[in-house]
Queue: 2 jobs
Job 1
Amino acid sequence: MVYTPPERSSSPLMQIHTLKMYSEGRMIPVVRVPSHSHEWISWTLDAGAGGVIIPHTETPEQVQASVHAARFPPQGHRSFPPFALLLGLQDAVPEGKTWIDVANEHVAVIPQIESRLGVENLEGIMQVEGIDAIMIGPSDLHLDLGSDTMFTAAMERIHELSRKYKIPLVGFVYENTLTEKYKCGYRMLASAADMWILANGIEKSLETGRELIEEARKEMIQGDGEVGNPGGRL
């Protein structure tokens, strides 16, 4: 699974297609759509996403609407996508099933809780049939609650409800928090982001380069004396 957030990206369609093409179908994009609208959910799934994360979710009614938007009739009201599926090539399904049955059974709908109201209504949200997990937006939630004490209490409530309703949680984790998060009910864990990997890779490369240059400089000093700076330009 690869988490792709078009809420903060300018090219979600390209990302979805790229992930599916270069992984030869082995990686399934789960996309955080920009809004609750039927159009965004349908468009993202038609592009090839295996699931949607619905940001800023606050009520069971919003969740019910999202579940319906993600599924074809009779379970929902997602429109038939005439150009998203090549009939005869991409519609192979188990005997007794249609590709619509398979799509409805396997699409993931994940509400994201990021506010005080979302936490207050979380028990009702978790009882909506058709959701697969709950994602927490800790930064926005902390801002909305306004204090560390209230945030800690809210997270304890979220973990309690996750255990009660057996709804897994989704979130980012660091290596030193992975065990704790797993014990709290997190089952879909994002352990890295492309920008973090890129930044850390550049930092590591620069660090290694500086160390190698320093070692070379010391060797040259020992052999030939001080090393000059050619033309004073470097």
Job 2
Amino acid sequence: FFTDVRECDEGNGGCSYTCHNIPGSFKCSCPSGLQLASNGLDCEDANECLDGNNGGCGHECSNVFGSFVCKCRPGFRLDVDARSCNDFENCALNDGRGDCQQICNEIDNGRECSCYHGYQLTRNGVNCTDTNECLEEPRRCHQFCNNTEGSYRCFCDVGFVLDANDVTCSDYDECMYVQPCEHTCKNTFGSYQCGCLQGYRLHPNGSCVGW
């Protein structure tokens, strides 16, 4: 009589996962998502996306170790079966925005997202981020530019005033509007210069003092 040797009782028969004893031998098996390697002992990832049926996914199949994930093209969402993709009425949901952060535009094969003025579409094609107009060429502002959320604001250096177009800067005539000098005032580009009448000299503080 011969007694069957139970190879699985020693070191799991060398199997990395499950060992099955059979008369005169043994065999290894792997859990779902893995397949037996060529050495008959180890288990390696099984790419379900290459099974000839796209893993059962309606649109895109993404392989992960031991499993897979189905994904849908823009304008569709994954069904409860985690495989099928359903058209989610494009822009009808979320107050007409669909899954877009700002503006949803319906096109023939789904939807296309866009952004309000002052924003630009991010790489995911759904969200919007502020556009820094101050970094664009040609320059938006004559002198200085301050970026704001969704817009920008121009401002001028001391001695200048922002024009009605909110872009260019013009010299501010301090002598006419502020009258900063005690005696005489001469406007200069971006500034002014004080002077004194005969018999007086200009003090460092800008006042006129007698000789």
